[in-house]
Amino acid sequence: MYRPEFRRKHFDVDMFPMFNLLLIVLSFLMLNGRPAIRYPILINLPAGSSFNTADPDSYFTLTTILIGQKKLMLKLDAPDIREAALKQIGDKYNVGFTPDEINKFGKTDVIGTPLAQIKKYISGYYNATDYYNQPGLRLDELAEWIKESRKATFEKHNSSTRIFIMADGETPYPVIKDVIDMLAQQKITKFSIIYSYLRQI
């Protein structure tokens, strides 16, 4: 009796397009992803009820005031502005900085050390211990840094600085009000407050 032979069919699966797609997605994430920024002070942003449209990463001449853990610090994004601001403050208070110190300071990202200790801080930068243990700025020192950085921004880029305030959610309101009053004394009435968006369910 005849018995038909059933041939097993093998289907080859081509994985090459899948690997191509994976490579494209990975490249997109690497080019467009934002690295996590670690600040010297812990800041838990307060939740807002509406979407925050102000994006700090979309501005070049950007100044961010950091408020948290009973400390005030300043983040200047442009290296040339940091260098120029240091020179101007040094000239104002008769503190001399060498070209090497100015260049090294341009590589810092967050200013949280008083002027009296800034030379020691620059010599140790980037020392993680010194970076995370910065004592913070007094309100008048913060005002000087903002004033000189705004002047440097106008001279170098012929533009005004965009001010952002990033404060911890537990910060007492009077502390934030003091910072806002200080900005008002410099006739800065336009600034953005950074908060996290709490999506309504």
From TrEMBL:
Major localization class: membrane
Q: Name one Pfam family in it.
A: ExbD
Q: Which GO terms describe its molecular function?
A: transmembrane transporter activity
Q: Which GO terms describe its biological process?
A: protein transport
What's in the GO CC field? plasma membrane
Membrane topology recorded in Swiss-Prot or TrEMBL: Single-pass membrane protein; Single-pass type II membrane protein
Q: Which UniProt keywords apply?
A: Cell membrane, Membrane, Protein transport, Transmembrane, Transmembrane helix, Transport
Q: Which residues cross the membrane?
A: none
Q: Where in the cell is it found?
A: Cell membrane
Question: Of which family is this protein a member?
Answer: Belongs to the ExbD/TolR family.
Protein name stated in the entry: Biopolymer transport protein ExbD/TolR
Give the source species: Mucilaginibacter gossypiicola
